[in-house]
Amino acid sequence: MSKRLTTYLSIFVVFFLMFLLTGWFYFFQQKQAISTVVNRDYDYIMKNDPIGQNKQAKTHYYTFVLSWSPAFCEIQRKRYGDNLPDSLKLQCGKTQQFGWIIHGLWPQNKLARRVADHPRFCQGDLPMIERKIIEQYLSESPSASLLQGEWEKHGSCAFDDAESYFKKQRELYRTLKLPSYALSKNKLFSWLKENNKQLEQVYLSTNRSEIFICYDLTWQPIDCPRSRTGY
Q: What b-and-e string marks burial along 3-37, b requiring 16 or more CB atoms within 10 Å of the CB?
């Protein structure tokens, strides 16, 4: 074996080992972050919610809410620095790799004029969802507290159980092609319509770093209200 070939092989082995170590470190950090967010009390207490319950409101359509995680995490890092709360360590920690994530799926009332007019907490104050269920959906909603809260506040008004709610969110999420980089509002809407034929003719809404996509009761995309009053 020539000296040059031996050198090339040595370099290759070094880089390969570095790649394995990097992958191991990332995997370990992710597992640790997941453990941190689920091995804690992530229950949502209805009596502490500033808006409260409305189980009388009818559901006329749904709003699917997606959040741009880098913008959210930037705000959290400015607030907490390196001392992120455990609930944020998976989403905003050192191994943060999230782009557009699922904020929630909200049953909506077309007559609503404020948030409190929409269906909320329809099954009352619910117990914590099992961790083994939460863990399955952290790749799209990287926060146990978020998943628990969205289920209690919104999902319980349209679904019998949390897993059915999370599965529907995932189904809608996976029908969408989403950009992996930040875009201005107009460019974002253009990108979504160009890459998602089902959204070509519907009116989308946005709020800072979130997208709102609306669906009718048969899960077909529809125009979101021009005024976001009541979201």
A: eeeeeeeeeeeeeeeeeeeeeeeeeeeeeebbebb
| Alpha-carbon distances of 25 from 99, 166, 173, 197, 212, rounded to whole Å | 21, 29, 29, 39, 36
**pTM for this prediction:** 0.85
The domain covering 3-222 belongs, at the CATH homologous superfamily level, to Ribonuclease T2-like (3.90.730.10)
Residue 120 C-alpha from the chain's centroid: 19
Q: Annotated active-site positions, please?
A: 103, 150, 154
pLDDT tens, position by position, 172-188: 999 999 999 999 999 99
CB 177 within 8 A of CB 195: yes
List the chain residues with pLDDT less than 50.
16-17, 19-28
**Could you give the count of Cα atoms lying within 13 Å of 41 in the half-sphere of its Cβ?**
3
Rounded to an integer, what distance in angstroms lies between the CA atom of residue 228 and that of residue 226? 6
Question: Count of residues for the chain?
Answer: 231
- Tell me what pLDDT residue 22 has: 45
Q: What is the pLDDT of residue 226?
A: 83
Domain edges within the chain = 3-222
